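Workshop exercise sheet. Pairs work together: one partner reads the sequence aloud, the other fills in the structure field after running the prediction. Swap roles for the next sheet.
Pair: D.N. / O.F.
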Amino acid sequence: MSTILSSLGRWSYRHPWRVLVSWLLLLGLAGGGALVFMQGTDNSFSIPGTEAQEGIQLLERSFPQASGTSAQLVVVAPEGMSVTDDAFAVEIGTVVDEIAAVDKVLAVTDPFDEMVTGLVSDDEQAAIIQIQFDGQSTDIPEDSVAEVEAVTDSFRAAVPEDTQIALGGDLFATSMPALSIIEAVGVLIALFVLIITFRSFAVAFFPLVSALIGVGLAIALIYFSTAFASISSVTPMLAIMLGLAVGIDYALFIVARHQDQVRTGVDPEESASRATGTAGSAVVFAGVTVLIALIGLSFAGIPFLTTMGIAAAVAVAIAVVVAVTLTPALLGFSKGRVAGWGHLTSAGIALPTGRRAGKRETAQAAETEAPALAEKSAKRRPKYNRWVMLVTRHPVITTVAVTVGLGLAAIPAASLALALPNAGVQPVTSEARQAYDLNAKHFGPGANGPLVMAGTIVTSTDPLGLMADLKAEIEQIPGVKEVALATPNETADTGLIQIVPETAPDDPATAELVRELRAQHDRLLEEYGVDLKVTGFTAVGIDISDRLGAALVPFGVFVVGLSLVLLMIVFRSVWVPIKAAVGYLLSVGASFGVVAAVFEWGWLADLLHVDKTGPVISFMPIILMGVLFGLAMDYEVFLVSRMREDYVHSRRARRGRADRHTAVAAVRSGFTASARVVTAAAVIMFAVFAAFVPEGDSSIKPIALGLAVGIAVDAFLVRMTLVPAVMTLLGEKAWWMPRWLDRVLPHFDIEGEAVERELQLAEWPEPDYAEPLAGDDVAVRVDGGRGLGEVTLFSDATFRVRHGETLLVTSADPRAARAFALTVAGRVTAQDGRLRVAGHLLPGRAAWVRAHVGLALLDGAAEPLTELRRALERDTRLVVIDGIDTLTGADRDQAAALLRDAADRLAAAATPLTVVATARRDGPALDLFADAHRPSVLTLPLQTHPASTDSTPTDSQVISA
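Structure field:
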């Protein structure tokens, strides 16, 4: 991975205009597609398989007048007047007729209709006009809504002055999130932090440009996809938050690594390549963790949430790809002008301020001053960050203080209630909120969230009597204020009961009432023979909240388990992942606690412009857990990977020995080297998320607050305080892992070790080496299984092969020979020593070698000639053949002919065919090569070991190695 990214970074650096124009073209195409095809976002929520959804489907089939979206026109007479006065009654009758004539309006209920009760308040000061639309909220044309609003305006002008009129209900219960100027403050804060971090105006804009292009592309694709899928209106805002935050941070990590390298004298192009290979690898890993967590939102089994997770994952994926391509391209525009203020350096030598050095001056300065600087550096004691020194000197106190503090912060989370958003959480300036408040004031809070019970009554001989009996039964249930309507449909095959609860739709007591009504199902079915289902907008919201609440534990287990596995792969440690997972849980608990304290308890509610306290949006916890997991892993990787890197280097310098002092020193040096960048990244993410809190949509507010708090807690209290304290307590044991687990887990080059190895061996076996094959002390060791431990198949293989030559490798052990063939062909990467194939260093460049080196496994093949022909068909300049001495008779002659033909095809090429072959005996193979006109043959007897012949692993073990 790191070597591929390194090459990608170098190419992007060399071709900045191509990369920039390509991304801008993609942005333009996606934007154009969105403008042409987008259908708008969806504010409706549904959840298949629940009782509420089944009830809605029943009403759609049998009672369409009650199945669509409803709205309410609330009328409140001035003090001293009544809505029953002629001044109101006549106008209400007129407005009922006018609204009924609007397209897509199924029915309008006159509050004075003799068949209707409960639509006029007990004091006759308020009345409700019920409006039923045909279809869900997304199906209602804007023209119909506008016409109803126009009728309402005319009605408002016709009634007496000081009359309160507000249009609300389910159709207006959810608001469309929109960006405001406040959100731009987060971007400005991010820019300010970047300027301070990089000490350069030009470089500070690079992460912003990268993030904005990525966010623009992601949002365009999301709106384009509305032509094919239903997407919640919250989704684009979530994608913007995440895309901005991770886009800026990912580019920041790459640019910061590049700037540090340039300041120490690394060539800018080489630095961009290294930064993309090293920091870019960590970016890819961090992005993958966020992607997995977001896609894991499908655990809840709720379609709109699954779509939201996929859309947000797309935004993060685009941010990763843009970061590893566009960022090095932008660095290509700046060339060497990235050092920043006070860091005008060249080759690591400080220059006079305001003047740049030429090549000759740089060389002279390096020659004369470098020895003195080296001597001075050797004598200088390492300078550690003051904070990490304080933390590591008092690790027990620090660990206890952080753990207890975050535990206390999580206490309010116990009172966190969940619900879908309704008009009650909209700003008080919203007409829908005004209708909600008027309704609650004059008709009770339950009037804003009526429940519906529906069922088939086709077997009843007295539908009206049955519905009256059911009404009397339901009214006896605690929590029911009244049954506003109990009626059969026109064909008398479906009954509908409209229930007004005593409590508001987002009150936990209403959810309990729904559960109690459903608990009466069996009794009512037995007594009356009616299979009643509880449904309605409020019941759907309760079902979604219950489903999400039930999904939190499985999702949490998935996320924590995933973090343990991923971090074990990265850090080759058991205790580091456990510590990281516990820290993540502390961060989640604290963020939940703060959200509950603000939105449930009302702490700082006015300061954060929270108009109404109460339950938060249902999918806040699961989204916060998923997103915070990915971001927490970002900081863990960038901080702890540097500690591990320093620990490994120190242990190597001490010839494999390491003690507590070595481990603690690595914690301090790793923290010091990465704290600046992690701090900047955390401040930027906090600013981006926090900017969505003051003026954000009611659905976004708790998510944004939870993420902002979670980022601050996780970065500064967990990763930068608790982590170094715990690592100090663990000492060298922090990096312990059982051997069997180390062998089982795959390797992921998160720290760019392959890039560093390529830099170290850039001139091996000699400068500008252009021959096809070179190896020094190559060996392959695999897990022998069955308690055998590690088995060496072969070792100490040293060779040089020039273009057009043939290397014949012989071994009495066919598995050792096959392991050699697979290694040279890039199929086995678990090798020791040095190996360069076609100019590419293995194992780092194994992907390129696999794609360009032919491989024919003849030993044991059903059709060996087909294998050989396939290996030679790609016009490869290097072919590896295993078991060439197994060919006999006609097969041997055809193989020689195939090799001759391949060599003839490449005869005119600058690089002729090179062959690597393995055999048990060299005689038959040498004869075949003679017939194939390959006179230049080098032989290499493989050095095997007794253990490998006595207990040799299977072919699958060799290949999987």
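Discussion prompt: The first helix runs from residue 2 to 14. What would you look at next?
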